[in-house]
Amino acid sequence: MISILHISDLHRSPSEPVNNDSLIAALVADGDRYLGETPRVPPPCGIVVSGDIIQGARIGEEGWREEMVSQYVTAKDFLCKLSDRFLGGDRSQLILIPGNHDVCWNTSRSSMEKANPNETDGKIASLIEQRGSRYRWSWKDQVAYKIADSTLYHRKLDAYWDFISDFYSGFTFPLPIDRSRGFQLFELDESRILVAAFDSTYGNDCFGYSGDIEPGVVGRCSLAIRDLPKAYELKAAVWHHSIEGPPMRQDYMDVSHVKEMAGLGFQIGFHGHQHIGATQTRSIHLNEEHAMAVVSAGSLCAGARELPRGINRQYNIVVIEDDYKGGRVHAREMGEGGQFSRKTNGEFLMGHARISWLAQENIAGQIVKPDEENARRTILRAEEFLKSGMAKKALEEILTIDVGTNSYAKRLACEAALEAREWEVLKQLLSEAVSEDEVVWLAIALIETRDLVQAAGLIAKHSELARPVVQQLNDRLAVAQMKAGK
């Protein structure tokens, strides 16, 4: 059983600032509390931060560049201390994504100009609703704008990505961090859990508030995961925007993205934005039902004017069961003295809420067993190395799995060791030779390592070997004996 610390919306309210040390102290103190609660909550092995790292700067604010940099400095100080306290300083186990507050409004506004009325007359509504549209509507100015400088527009997250490059410097990931890819990959729980972190700020700017993931990104992420050298016990996704909202609100993300994730085998999703801790299950029906648990976290640092009525600052502890098929969400809420304790109302009436998902399946509808799948992938890679004449590389690859439990893997390892002339390795692999081929290979290894007495005894013991094979082994043994005599 493991747990993941899920926090979100770290944007600091200017009117109600939060001191980093006080916040860290409150989280550490709450860790002491939930470790002793029933049901048991283990210490977190990873941290998910689902967006809105900073508050941002308003359009035209004096010194807005310096202000954003300063806010990221404060955020880095907090996240480094959080990593040090809960993860032993391993920042690769702390997952970050951007939120709408991380989008620079001043940069996006500078990339726009007022649209020509001839372009928009009578059709502005349809223009701004098109996915990837260059047009925006300003309710404040009652004017249509158009993105005139696409290169500048795509720099709206530069401050965020500069912060990310600095924060993760020196740490490694399944794929290198790439600011233009639309997703990043992380591993938790000693590489048993894969987390895909999606940027849901596509099209998000000073006039466009809806969350969106760039078309094709979820699919490309799924393909990238398939190409990784291993399989995982659990596939998780993280994005920022909520997937449900009031009818008149336009700042949430289309649930179709989550349905695509579920259809591609993601089992649990984390998000923030709505400032309320909650859980739900998203199901899609193909030939079978695919279910994905979705968990939202409240805001850790928002002020009273940014929080829903009656809601305080919150965060979650998500407990994953040992079989990776379900878990619990423990919502923690800030109360008196700036301290956290368990939320015990709504769906968290019992102090936690249950979540579950469906096991991963392959194309044949069979449940994927990661250990077996990883062994299969390793064997395929070793085969390719051996066919390409890279016997030592094939041997290194195949020995990363337990070849004793797979007869074909053992044979492949022996063939690679024989071709690479790794005689000591071959002797270890054949400590129990059970087939004629294995007896022959072991005899060769014994001869090559000058263990001639044992080699002679092995050849004499196995009279069932074909006469030409015995003759060849005896000839090889005789040559070795002559050399040894010299």
From TrEMBL:
It comes from Peteryoungia aggregata LMG 23059. It holds the Pfam family Metallophos. It comes from the Bacteria. Residues 3-139 form the Calcineurin-like phosphoesterase domain. This is Calcineurin-like phosphoesterase domain-containing protein. SUPFAM superfamilies: Metallo-dependent phosphatases. Coiled coil: none annotated.
